[in-house]
Design a protein that fits this description.
Elements: E1 4-13, E2 16-25, E3 31-35, H1 42-50, E4 57-62, E5 65-66, H2 72-78, E6 79-82, H3 94-99, H4 114-126, H5 142-157, E7 164-168, H6 176-191, E8 195-199, H7 203-209, E9 212-217, E10 220-225, H8 227-230, H9 233-240, E11 244-248, E12 255-259
Parallel strand pairs: 3-8, 3-9, 6-7, 7-8
Antiparallel strand pairs: 1-2, 1-4, 4-5, 9-10, 11-12
Helix pairs in contact: 4-5
């Protein structure tokens, strides 16, 4: 499995350490959610896992190989990332954007093969975007745009057994229905052998869809494990510096969190 692991990963910006000795192994999980407040280091950690950011100390490994010395094409075939604000050239169709993910598979001639086009179409079909293949990306709605980005990532690793997707707040800004559509798709891929590592603020959805949950605060791992073990009042209250409670989802029986109204000694309504 091409899932990454972090061994003592530290990252410094301008002399300030923003990630502090992170040790996490993702090989045993399907969908792993990383939650935590703004500025906790979630995006920085994903960048380190993807190889886009070199740790100041420690190592990230994929298939037992340190990212410090691996071939970038080899890595791109095993792992695809979607950032919060990716840059995509205007004027591309949805299919053309999906095909950007196939660059790591191009042969010596630098041309797409029939298999590449099939992978691109398969990725669009998997994200329910095939009917939009000819549309310009700038005409897409927010939910369609996120699914197109996901299709590009899927196209990049299509054909690789048990690949990894690194997704930075891909549900951010989406209404509940669109967020659930994406999380259901990711859960299906995780069940099929993908390693999904996703940062998110929607902690209650993480408790429903993620196999494992990690709480990151001030660049440190506060907790990590299955939702049944770590999604509790103590951990969430410490993570968000708010008095949190837990209820059982009426349909699923899974834990769901809420904030007590007496947070900071006053109601959340400010009265």
């Amino acid at each position: 499995m091409s899932a990454p692991s972090a061994a003592g990963v530290c990252v410094c910006y301008r002399g300030r350490e923003v990630l502090h000795s992170i040790n996490l192994d993702f090989s045993a999980c399907g969908m792993h959610a990383i939650i935590g407040p703004n500025g906790s280091g979630k995006t920085t950690f994903l960048r380190a896992l993807s190889g886009r950011l070199q740790p100041t100390a420690g190592q990230v490994y994929v298939d037992g190989c340190s990212l410090a010395g691996v071939d970038r094409k080899w890595l791109a075939r095993k792992m695809a990332a979607v950032s919060q604000s990716p840059e995509v050239p205007a004027g591309l169709t949805v299919l053309q954007m999906a095909m950007l993910g196939r660059f790591a598979w191009l042969g010596a001639g630098g041309l797409y093969a029939a298999r590449d086009y099939q992978c691109g179409r398969d990725a669009l079909a998997a994200t329910d975007m095939l009917d939009h293949a000819g549309r310009k990306v700038e005409t897409l709605s927010g939910g369609e745009w996120k699914r197109a980005l996901l299709a590009r990532a899927l196209a990049q690793v299509w054909g690789e057994p048990k690949p990894t997707l690194l997704l930075d707040e891909i549900c951010s800004g989406l209404d509940p229905a669109r967020a659930i559509e994406i999380l259901r798709l990711l859960a299906q891929k995780a069940a099929g052998g993908f390693c999904i590592i996703i940062t998110m603020h929607e902690y209650n959805l993480a408790a429903i869809y993620a196999d494992m949950i990690t709480g990151l605060k001030n660049g440190r791992v506060l907790f990590s494990g299955s939702g049944a073990k770590v999604f509790n009042e103590g951990n969430l209250s410490a993570l968000y510096d708010l008095p949190m409670g837990i209820l059982s989802h009426p349909d699923l029986g899974l834990p769901q969190a809420y904030c007590h109204l007496d947070a900071f000694g006053k109601s959340l309504r400010g009265t």
